[in-house]
Amino acid sequence: MAFGHEHNGEAGGHHDHGHDGPKTLPASLAAPEIVSAWRTRALIVFVIATILSVFFAFTHEGKNHILRAYLLGFMTCFGFAGGGLVVLMLQYVSGGKWGLLLRRPLEAMSRTIWVVGLMFVPIIFFWKHLYQWAAFPTAGAVAQALQAHQVTLEQAMTLNAKRSMLNPTAVIIQTVIIFAILWFFQFLLNKWSLERDADPARGTEPSYDRWRIKFENLSGIGILIYAILLTAGAIDWIKSLDITWYSSIWGLQFLVGQGYAVLALSILTVILLSRFEPMKTMLRATEQHDLGKLAFAFVMLNIYLSFAEFLIIWSGNVPDEIPWYLNRIHGGWWYICSADFICHWLIPFCLLLSRDLKRNKEKMIWLTCFMIFARCLDMFWLIEPNFPDAAGNLHITGNIGILAYITVPVAVISLWGAYYLTQLQARPLINVNDPHVEEMLEPEHAH
Amino acid sequence: MPPREGIYGLLAEFNTPGELVHATEEARRVGYRRMECYTPYPVEEAAEAMHFHKTRVPLVCLLGGLMGVTTAFLMETWINVWAYPLNIAGRPLFSWPAFIIPAYEWTILFAGLSAAFGMLALNGLPQLYHPVFNAPNFRNGATTDKFFLCLEAVDPKFSLGETRTFLEQFSAISVVEVDH
Question: In which residue ranges of chain B is pLDDT below 50?
Fold first, then answer.
């Protein structure tokens, strides 16, 4: 009789008889005190990781590795801030109960966008160590570099061909535009979200409809604009580390990767918060299960795009494209490549297949943390082999500075995390002027 | 198989899902285990009341998927390496990246078919005969607006007199014996 339907017997004792009335909305919707403690912990981790990172500055190639690892941290934080914004817009356009509890955590992520923008400033000062277009910004500089064998002929020609987009001024302008537009979108969404709850007509059908349509109209176009801006950003900040590399799937790959990381972080946030009120009352097994399924979809889409890109380039076997993969497979990189595949796809995929795991809070905490780690590992695999000393040659001996890839991102992400938690505390955790709130207070599967 | 004789169980008929769920919970509480609820539409609480959470469909689906991926991958390997080796752009005969997509498709195909047919098989379908249809009120009610609880005679706790008394304490419209 019951194939294909949900049974929630194990989900908790509160609806054993199926006749319980609705729960009541907790009196205080403010974030629990514990968030301050989490923030203190994040800051302690930041300080320790920063001190450890400083040591690497004195190792051979250490400063370069710190810079590249910082770029990794920056891009991960951008993924949380920008990705948080786009998932927020996604849940506004798609509607549904799954996203209601994520709204305030996602809003908190999106409000960190200006901090992430500031985090880009140090990169500008040191970027001639990262990007060839920054080191050789003019045709003359490129010609000189070619003579001195600092760049290959192919790189020199590509540098000249791509200069209109990839030169220091253009990249600064693009970066400013990206952050300004994202800031504007998150400003409106965050402002309206508070106004929605303060609406004098709140709790009525006209109010629900008015706000729903208002959010939908902004979010629909916002998602499109974000996809375009992210493509530009991913090219400027990460892809152009190898000036000769091109792949049309790159922007989408980052978009999906951000969805992956943002879902992991927001599921982690709501589950940790659900140990305390008000999230304790609000988070039901059904919604947690739905979020797990959505995360599973992103795990699948992520490997689909990554593997499709690889398969197409592998099939083509064109000398222009294939070295990018060879640099990331040969010379010790095979271990990282395999670990990336296993951590980024195989483990989350196999675990998220399980219905019980998706409904289990403790296990989901571990899995979501692991997924965030897997994103960083993937980014390491994308960034480090771009540089001549590491391409097709992963080594630790005499290259201890590479360990900065562990400490620096931890420092950057914990600092960002502390600010995220501050923003999370700034507002009530539940968006109340929404018809779904009432539905979520009802027992699961009521008649 | 020779036709089985005797009583299949006692069938109680209810007007509302709430009454059915209540009776099921009580039956479970006093120790009945072999029982089944029959409702015109899915009633989640009834499944819960019977503690019916787990099915083996996911396992069948997983095994089907594993069978699909293994079959496809080995078949491609056999074809490309031994049966019909072709030099394609100088690549090795065992070019596993190219095998992934078809192997993946077979995984989905086999998993999907296993889930669908496994579900039917585990439900015991197709089934041409079921004793509960011997109850005259079942045919009309079970697919329209009545809710049935059947306590089966194979349950060790089943006894015609006591079980009937047990079922009659609820607001059942009728409690009837069902023959095999």
Answer: none
Residues of B in contact with A17 (CB under 8 A): 21, 25, 45
Cβ–Cβ of A315/B25 closer than 8 Å? no
Q: Which of residues 286-315 of A touch B (CB under 8 A)?
A: 307, 310-311, 314-315
> Mean pLDDT in chain A?
89
Structural tokens at position A185: 């979108």
In terms of C-beta density within 10 A (0-12 exposed, 13-18 middle, 19 or more buried), how is residue B51 classed?
middle
Q: Which helix (H) or strand (E) holds B7?
A: strand B7-14
pLDDT at A143: 93
The pLDDT confidence band at residue A299, using thresholds 50, 70 and 90, is: very high
Check if A447 contacts B (Cβ < 8 Å): yes
Dump pLDDT digits (tens) for A16-69: 444 456 788 887 888 888 999 999 999 999 999 999 999 998 888 888 999 999
**Segment A4-12 mean pLDDT:** 40
Rounded alpha-carbon distances, angstroms, from residue A317 to A90, A226, A314, A322, B95:
37, 32, 5, 6, 13
Any idea which residue has 């040591």 for tokens?
A55
Q: Residue B177: what pLDDT?
A: 87
User: Chain B contact for A8, CB < 8 A?
Assistant: yes
**Domain range summary for chain A, segments of one domain joined by +:** 28-131+166-438
- Decide if the complex's ipTM is over 0.90: no
Buried b (16+ CB within 10 A) or exposed e, A89-122: bbbbeeeebbbbbbbbbbbbbbbbbbebbebbee
Local confidence band at A222 (pLDDT 50, 70, 90 cut-offs): very high
pTM: 0.85
Domain locations along chain B: 7-53+131-179, 57-122
Classify B6 as helix, strand or coil.
coil
> What CATH fold (topology level) applies to the domain B7-53+131-179?
Alpha-Beta Plaits (3.30.70)
Of A6, A307, A314, nearest to B44 by CB-CB distance is A6
Of residues A57, A67, A234, A79, the one with CA closest to residue A135: A67
